[in-house]
Design goal:
By secondary structure, the chain is mainly α. Helix content is about 80%, strand content about 0%. It has five helices and no strands. Helix 1 packs across helix 4 (about 95-115). The longest helix has 26 residues, at about 5-30. The N and C termini lie far apart (about 45 Å).
């Protein structure tokens, strides 16, 4: 199998997991596990995998000792705190609302960059915004239809 195909399959699987994340987390919280415990498990598993992969023999450059503090800081703010706040919010709302917020974030960032930073929008970005908005509207309409 080509590297190109492996990359696309990997991205597809990652997106399936990411998409299922809302529903799985909503089922688990708060009846079986609290948002804090959920994130603690995720961070511990990710940290364990990071260190296992770092120790695995491979044909690559080793991570420098000075970079470990940076990884810790990025993991704390970019993963642990970010995910904890997201899961706390998810435990207090529906998975559809949480998915809409997460889906609309890149759209809003792109639009703000266009409006406030005067960045130019490319056609593909405009198409992505339109596709994202169409997906959000579809989710809202399906949710309204399902709940009557």
């Amino acid at each position: 199998m080509s590297d190109h195909r492996k990359a696309h399959i990997s991205i597809f699987i990652a997106n399936l997991i990411y998409g299922a994340n809302f529903s799985i987390a909503k089922i688990a919280m708060p009846n079986y596990i609290t948002p804090s415990a959920f994130i603690l498990l995720r961070v511990l598993c990710a940290t364990s995998l990071f260190f296992l992969l770092d120790r695995a023999p491979a044909d690559r450059k080793a991570i420098e000792k000075k970079d470990y503090l940076r990884f810790f800081e990025l993991g704390l703010f970019g993963v642990a705190i970010n995910q904890l706040l997201f899961f706390e919010g998810l435990s207090r709302t529906t998975n559809i609302n949480a998915a809409l917020i997460m889906t609309s974030t890149p759209i809003l960032v792109t639009l703000m960059a266009f409006l406030f930073l005067r960045e130019h929008l490319k056609w593909i970005q405009s198409g992505g915004i339109a596709l994202g908005l169409a997906g959000a509207v579809t989710l809202i309409l399906q949710y309204q239809h399902a709940t009557g």
